[in-house]
Amino acid sequence: MRDTAFISALALLMVIFCCGYAAGAERNLLQSYLTTFPPYGCNRDAQQSRFRLSSIYTVMGNRVCMTAQVVDCGKPGSACCARNIDMYKIELDVNKRCKGAVSGVTVNGLPALAPTFDPYGTNESKAVYKLTVSEWLTE
User: Fold this and answer.
1) Which pLDDT belongs to residue 58?
2) CA nearest to 97, candidates 119, 114, 115, 113
3) Contacts of 132 (CB under 8 A, 6+ apart)
4) d(CA 76, CA 41)
5) Residue 8 pLDDT
6) Which regions of the chain are under pLDDT 50?
7) How many angstroms separate the Cα of 90 from the Cα of each of 15, 53, 114?
8) Sign of the CA dihedral with 99 first, then 105, 107, and 112 last
9) What burial letters (b/e) apply to 7-38, b meaning 16+ CB within 10 Å?
């Protein structure tokens, strides 16, 4: 049951890249900061990303296995499309009640390292499940 709750809470998958951004550049209002995933400034345009998580994943007990891949960038020339940009972290927007529902994650067969679960939002009603990728995905 806990796996089902976690899986249904994966409403949005987002890969965060080591793309530089000015601190607070996209924080227009405190309210949007508290309700928008992820809860800090970043480039949210999927067309400016070289990486994708497959929508197909497997669950074995409390372990989730995902696949990430390098794809053609939809907006060549943008900063996040540069070949020197690596994928080093995956962040999932989850329901705060799902804390502890997942005991491990693998990406491309390798374990994700040091997962964290950080509540955010008004009354900390949401959470970001952050996974450091054990081996950077590059082209």
Assistant:
1) 95
2) 119
3) 88, 89, 112, 113, 114, 115
4) 22
5) 31
6) 1-30
7) 5, 9, 12
8) positive
9) eebbeeebbbbeeeeeeeeeeeeeeebeebbb
